[in-house]
Amino acid sequence: MYVASGRGSLSSTGNGPSECRHGVTAMPEYTMQGADYSRQFAGTVFARLDAQDHTHYDLSDFGYVSYEGRGYAIRGGNHLAGTHIVGATKANSVVDKNQRGWDQENLYLVGGGSMPIIGTANVTLTLAAMCLRSSRDILKCLH
């Protein structure tokens, strides 16, 4: 088992090196806080619906981690991010809000790479909205 411990590090507890086969490395504090908040929010929803949570995370699960005394299965969304970060200025990013390169007027780097970090949910809708914004800007430039 791996335990998330302050500032995004994981400490191993239990059987030592054999646990490395799970492929789990450091889990950022941001990710674990997001997962923890999501679990708390789900608990609130279940309580309001008078529903029972039957979620169970097995210690032998590939992505099992423990955070704040609760177990999670963190496998990641397998979405790449942060390769060409979007931002407000050339000084802190590669592309503007339309995913247009700061240095080349005719270069758009459209995709998940513009997202500086992935949260706890699937990025499909956010990515679709970003691409729609880019396409609108491209069309505006063509006319």
Automatic annotation (TrEMBL):
<feature type="domain" description="Glucose-methanol-choline oxidoreductase C-terminal">
    <location>
        <begin position="73"/>
        <end position="130"/>
    </location>
</feature>
<dbReference type="InterPro" id="IPR036188">
    <property type="entry name" value="FAD/NAD-bd_sf"/>
</dbReference>
<dbReference type="Pfam" id="PF05199">
    <property type="entry name" value="GMC_oxred_C"/>
</dbReference>
<dbReference type="InterPro" id="IPR007867">
    <property type="entry name" value="GMC_OxRtase_C"/>
</dbReference>
<feature type="region of interest" description="Disordered">
    <location>
        <begin position="1"/>
        <end position="22"/>
    </location>
</feature>
<protein>
    <submittedName>
        <fullName>GMC oxidoreductase</fullName>
    </submittedName>
</protein>
